Amino acid sequence: MLFFRTIFIVFLQLLRSSSFVLSSLPQNNSSPNPYLTSTTLFLQNYQKMAQNFKVFMYQPNTNTNITQFSFKTEQESLFYSSLQNSSYLTQHPEQAHLFFLPFSSDTSTRSLARFISRIRNDFPYWNRSLGADHFYLSCDGISHVNDRNIVELKKNAIQIACFPTRHRSFIPHKDITLPPITNPHAPVRLSNEEFCVVEYQNDDVLWLGEALRLGCVPVVVTEEAVNDMPFMEVLRWREMAVFVKSGVNIETDTWRERKGNMRRLGVVGSKHLRWNRPAQPFDAFNTIMYQLWLRRHTIRYESVQSS
């Protein structure tokens, strides 16, 4: 308990200008929490990430202005600007844990292949892992082409996509998703204000974070397994939301017994889904960085031979 109090004091000092999450974090390890680890371990790891994590951003192709990138979604733009203004970036690639590949949403596959080729030839970092310690931002995914640079990018590098992905380019064990940006007027269907029904296959699911914030247990209606939830390596989604097929009745004794705890955990978890300008500790941007930090130990993939 003394150790936890010490960790908590460190974070109070770190966040003395903000009460963003601390007011709702569980106060001891015996309390239920929304994390896949104990609260103490989560705070320890987050602190290490905030203090040590470094990312090197490559310069884009010479005919591109890095400040004039265009993205199709607001969360892509917000992640990119937050990263540019963060302390995670380093000008010394030898200090970096991961490497960011910046390119616009409208970049052609031919231009992207040239970009990767230049990085492969000008720097030693791509070849040592074949891109496995690199990440890029793309909600649309990358088109399939028979080019070694694009194949290795899609197969090895971490793609930051947008939730929900709904396309086959997302690889669950490798890629991660940006939570959507919502406003306080979520058009979700309430069932006696305790359960919020959201259809995974339509835009209802974009309001999932807002439902959690309001203390309403999301009921995600889906006919298939959902493997692209934001922060799947951080949050225990099945302790905060219900995943059912259409026609399933959730008004059972089991869910009535669990809903109180699920609502409490959901409110805490929702803090990590919230975007801020500028970014705040524990918010969507910093939790994305935390998930990247967890993946900094990369696997070295075998080379893809061109045909």
TrEMBL record:
Q: What are its GO cellular component terms?
A: Golgi membrane
| A UniProt-annotated Pfam family | Exostosin_GT47
Q: Where in the cell is it found?
A: Golgi apparatus membrane
- Tell me the classification of the organism that encodes this protein: Eukaryota, Viridiplantae, Streptophyta, Embryophyta, Tracheophyta
Q: Where is the Exostosin GT47 domain?
A: 51-186
GO molecular function annotations of the record: xylogalacturonan beta-1,3-xylosyltransferase activity
Q: What class of enzyme is it?
A: transferase
Topology of the protein relative to the lipid bilayer: Single-pass type II membrane protein
Q: Which family does it belong to?
A: Belongs to the glycosyltransferase 47 family.
Q: Which InterPro entries match?
A: Exostosin, Exostosin_GT47
Q: What is its EC number?
A: 2.4.2.41
Keyword annotations for this protein, in alphabetical order, are: Glycosyltransferase, Golgi apparatus, Signal, Signal-anchor, Transferase, Transmembrane
Name this protein carries in UniProt = Putative xylogalacturonan beta-1,3-xylosyltransferase
The residue range of the signal peptide is 1-17
Q: Where are the membrane-spanning stretches?
A: none
